[in-house]
Amino acid sequence: EALAVVNAYARTAADWRELAPGPEFRAVVRRAVEDPLRLALGAISAAAVELFAGEGAERLRACPAPGCILYFVRTHARREWCTVGCGNRVRVARHSRRAREGDEAG
């Protein structure tokens, strides 16, 4: 279902450059669809296709933080979280857990 929606809107992103006639050639952009909403949805869908199936798709990761549903593109080998906030919450929870375990042991 979601794939069909993305593909349907990705088809509307088609645009191309042409040379306009005149004393001096100039490039103009032609679009298959002129509706601004459909153009925006088409551009977003085309970006989604590139994200999931393009050259960088192997860098796409799900955030491993508990309860986080976001994905991110791993731009650095040490990047683990979708945001700094997600990573910080995990580290704070780990620190609190270790502190509690230390209190219980001693």
Automatic annotation (TrEMBL):
The UniProt entry, under Gene3D superfamilies, shows: Jann2411-like domain
List the SUPFAM superfamilies: Jann2411-like
Which Pfam families does this chain map to?
zf-CGNR
Domain Zinc finger CGNR, first and last residues per copy? 59-98
Domain of life of the source:
Bacteria
PANTHER family with a match to the protein in the record: BLL6575 PROTEIN
Record protein name field: Zinc finger CGNR domain-containing protein
